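Query structure, 360 tokens:
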């Protein structure tokens, strides 16, 4: 009997202890759940004057500001150093900040999400568009990529601080090549890749040069015609006076004709240029002089000319000469300066093209 009482007592004790532990565990879980509810913060959203928005915590009483700023020369250098030249279509810079009731700039408490709708790029059918956001660090003059998402032209990225951010629009054509230039023409928007734009610029310059040459030739012909008419009038007047005057007048008239002939047949002041493929005389179109050409080491037949108004995708031209460097035979655009990384590969590519086309 005593033995049964002891066993019963032990069972009761065990059950009581188990209930106590279960109760503590439940209390602990309840405590944890209560803590989570207490620490959970409400997300706030602020909208700027241009329609941009920021979402984060503890934003009550603050003002979100978004304004477009100039893409400075330092920013352009940072873009180049980041290897982004030729890899985007457009870029815009925005100063994103938040101010308190005293109009003092403040930083966010934790990570915030910023959303902005950009001007839509009306690309042709079959083209695709992407958006990328970079933080511009003015202290190091570098760019840092942000975690970015987008839907149509509405772009969202996350950050832990406010500053200047660069928004890149990257448009791809049907061949997945990056569109680097968009021009407004009478026929609407024209989208060009880097190579297409360089070719377009060369064609435009050649067209302008041909128009200028045609205009100059017309003016010279008009001037020569007027000069001949004047000489003929003078000759006829002198002929009516006496034969001696007539001889002098004839000598003067002959002298004018000779001078005009010599001028029209004189050598051009520019380097001779004959197109390698179709044999066109492009001397007065290319207007090359040795002063503006840079010799390229290891490629004695290739010379480089810098654009005075160079852009990130069009910095100059390669001119390929015949073997004795007396005649320019072909031209190709360049998106590199001689001091740029990638220039040597570009030169090698130009030389291969020249050999394929049968450079002499």
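Result returned for the query:
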């Amino acid at each position: 009997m005593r033995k049964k009482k002891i066993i019963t007592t032990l069972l009761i004790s065990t059950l009581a202890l188990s209930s106590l532990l279960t109760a503590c565990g439940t209390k602990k879980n309840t405590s944890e759940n209560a803590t989570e509810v207490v620490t959970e913060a409400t997300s706030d959203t602020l909208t700027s004057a241009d329609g941009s928005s920021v979402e984060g915590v503890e934003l009550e009483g603050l003002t979100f500001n978004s304004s477009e700023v100039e893409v400075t020369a330092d920013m352009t250098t940072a873009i180049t150093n980041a290897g982004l030249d030729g890899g985007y279509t457009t870029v815009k810079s925005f100063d994103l900040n938040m101010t308190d009731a005293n109009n003092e700039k403040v930083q966010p408490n934790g990570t915030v999400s910023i959303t902005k709708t950009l001007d839509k790029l009306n690309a042709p059918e079959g083209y695709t568009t992407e958006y990328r956001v970079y933080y511009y660090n003015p202290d190091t003059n570098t760019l840092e990529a942000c975690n970015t998402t987008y839907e149509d032209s509405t772009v969202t990225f996350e950050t832990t601080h406010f500053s200047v951010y660069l928004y890149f629009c990257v448009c791809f054509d049907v061949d997945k090549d990056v569109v680097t230039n968009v021009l407004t023409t009478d026929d609407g928007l024209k989208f060009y890749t880097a190579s297409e734009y360089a070719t377009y610029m060369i064609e435009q310059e050649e067209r302008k040069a041909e128009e200028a040459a045609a205009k100059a030739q017309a003016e010279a012909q008009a001037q020569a015609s007027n000069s001949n008419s004047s000489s003929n009038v003078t000759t006829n007047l002198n002929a009516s006076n006496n034969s001696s005057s007539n001889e002098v007048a004839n000598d003067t008239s002959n002298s004018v004709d000779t001078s005009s002939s010599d001028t029209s047949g004189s050598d051009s002041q520019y380097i001779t240029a004959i197109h390698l493929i179709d044999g066109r005389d492009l001397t007065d179109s290319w207007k090359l002089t040795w002063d503006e050409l840079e010799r390229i080491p290891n490629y004695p037949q290739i010379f480089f000319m810098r654009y005075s108004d160079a852009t990130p995708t069009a910095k100059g031209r390669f001119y390929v000469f015949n073997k004795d460097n007396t005649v320019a035979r072909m031209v190709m655009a360049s998106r590199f300066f001689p001091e740029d990384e990638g220039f040597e590969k570009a030169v090698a590519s130009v030389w291969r093209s020249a050999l394929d086309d049968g450079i002499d």
